[in-house]
Write a structure and sequence with these properties.
0% helix
Length: 88
């Protein structure tokens, strides 16, 4: 388990992979960030021919993607833990 401190930056990744056996067209990829994270920005990179994703953005992630078998999209998220965030 990783601990974070209010006011500090945090970075994490979200990995979307298609292990097969079939290609996927029109898959939804979404992540809604909690209010305890502020200044959320993210970038995305793909391998294996994945398409349809947004390369960078801020706030929540909402993409409709196409994933050939063996492809991956990696989202790297950067945010700050709000000073008012409380442990759960």
């Amino acid at each position: 388990m990783t601990s974070v401190v209010p006011g500090n930056a945090v970075t994490y990744t979200i990995v979307v992979t298609n292990a097969g056996p079939n290609a996927v067209t029109g898959a939804s990829v979404a992540d809604s960030f909690p209010a305890g994270l502020t200044g959320v920005t993210w970038s995305a990179a793909a391998t294996g021919g994945a398409t349809g994703f947004t390369a960078a953005g801020s706030g929540n992630i909402s993409n409709t993607v196409n994933l050939p078998v063996g492809s991956t999209i990696t989202y790297t998220v950067h945010a700050t833990v709000a000073l008012t965030a409380q442990a759960c």
